[in-house]
Amino acid sequence: MKQTLSIAPQEGFSMMELLVSILILLPIMGAAVGVFSDAAHQHAAEQSSIDANQEARTALEMMTTEIGQAGSHGDVYTTLTSAVGSSTVAQAAAVASAAGLTAGDFVTVDTGANQETVEVTAVGTGSFSGIFRVSHASGTPIRLFALPYTTGVVTPSGMGADASTPVTTLRFYGDINSDSSVQYVEYIYDSEGGQITRSITPVTQSTLNAAFPLVRNIRPNSARFILNTDEREVVTSVRVEMTVQNGVESGGKLEETTLSSRILIPSMRAASALLFENQLHGGFNRLPATPPQVTQWVNQ
Amino acid sequence: MGQPMKNRQWIAGEEGTALVATLILLMAMSVLSTALVFTVQNEMKTSSSYKYGQQAFYVADAGVRKAIQWFGDGSNYTPAVGVYPDLSTVPITYSSQPVRLAGQGANFPVSGVVSSFTSAFHDVALQADGQNSGTYSVGATLLKYSPASFINMATFETYPSAMERWRIESTGTWGNPNTPLGRAEITAVIENSGNALFDRALWGIDSLDLGGTVLIDSYDPALGPYGGTNIGDNGAIGSNGAITINGTVEVHGDAAYGPDGSFGAPDGAVTGDIIQLPAPRTFPPIPEFTVGTGSTTVSNKKTVTLSPGQYGDINVKSGGTLALEPGVYYFDSIIAKGEVRLTGDLTKPTTIFVKSALDLGAQGITNPNGDPTRLNIFYSGTSEMKIHGGPEAFVEVYAPNAPLKMVGNSAFYGSFIGRSVTVQGTPDVHFDEGCLQENLIQRPFRLMTWSRNLYQ
Known about the structure:
By secondary structure, chain A is of the alpha+beta class. Chain A is built from four helices and 15 strands. Chain B is built from three helices and 32 strands.
């Protein structure tokens, strides 16, 4: 009995107590869950927005770097691996490496009295073709002291001097990777798919590489590339604009961020200055021609 | 009874679930808050990294711009002449090491230039404000060295120098250089160049008129004399004004006419491009020079040989020969109905300055050297200058103030510039492509290519 009496008051809550406590706690918990749910939703929205911004910002940084190197052209140093004789017609010359050489380049062959400048008419594996007016022995140095391309950013037909034109496909080429190889790059804005895709292909290749998404979640009709030409019709700057949005509604609408960047292109400015001097002072035009593959891809 | 009651009271304080619920809620909110804090922190770090990287990039780019400016200032830098044993290597070497300025292994042959460059480009601080600063360091490597002779515009004499190509490597940091917040590397290639004064076969500053039966083309002296397979299509012509072509004229080269000028020619007369110049080309004035006094007459069947120096008026009668030894001459006038020819050591150059009148319209000038860059005529007068061609008429003529008339039925080899140029008769003009390598007007160092190597 003594033991029973001591336990009896600890038998738990009565039904009434439980119902009352549930009744009191229910709205409190409901409110708390609501607050928590809102906060979680807000967090998800913020995270999504940050992810979208981050992706767009990283992409814009990449675009800034790559577009900034449009028209650049790296030097190439190699040697003849067999002798070439003088000729008035183009012939193939075997070299230690033809990497980095592109049709339209002007290479300096040899030194001293036998030095000459040869235009590269074609590039093969371990060889290039051109007209050698002077004979050269095996081991002769071949040097490409590269000049920039005036057409490093491809303009839409009809775009003239001192003009500003928006495009949704940006095509440019140059030593994008800073490894002396000329790469062709395409950024294509797909408004319907809400993305910008990127493809990069060496100009020594015959077919274009596949494109992959670079930025997603772009608001429809919000992205464009604005090309700006100078008085010699050379594109010296490009402006990139886009508005990205996250997939979660906040306050009844999708959160948006607009990013834009005006990218100056130093190599194209240098090419334009050289073109000006070339027109004014004559002499040999050593500015490289547009690589044939680029012309072909642009016209596809 | 006392003990159970005590227990009951102790347990009664734990009635309900408010504390538990509060704790659970607090924990959930804490987790959420912590996640938010980390998210925001990450975002801030990313933003800061981007910002600092950008600032470091601009600092590195400032280093490149400063380096271009430094190289272009003749008081800082002039190419070292005649010191590199092998010009075929890339980079150019000196004492078996790549020629470098600044940084480890600085190897430029002139120590004063090395120390000047190092003090200008080693850990240079750019202060944005009291809290923010960046630092750049620049190194340079010599990639190409081509000996060249440039014209001194004050004297019209040439001096030996070189056209060079340098690779500039600039590293920029933002914040403390030892523990930078951002870092960027830029590589740029710069070159100094020279534009040839004699860059085309014919330049009529105000106008160019071609009539009669004229062929204009080019040849490469490195491949031998003009003719055979050594005939090129670089016989360009130009004018800041109008180009007018009549008669049977073939121009195997480009034709460039002035921004406000015009071009008129029969179809197919020009094989190259027809270009409207983006701006008028400027031509340097011939510097003032002092001539001698008195006059010298060379009679029929007589030969008078002159040494370099100052002379007054020269009159060469028909059948007479004026022979000039290599060197620099200053004449008041030359009126030649007879022959004017170079003599002596023809490997040496000859430069002739004429002040008030110049007529070589009868027999022209004979340069047996075969190299027009070895015979320059600078005529500063305003009265018409006449010149006749010939089998050894290898010459460069610069008459920026006078009408230049090229006459006769013999060829010219070289390059010809006049205030206006008229070609009559049936003379051919063969542009010597070697003219593009001599008498260069020096241009400052400037950017060729630019690339961003590192950005973080």
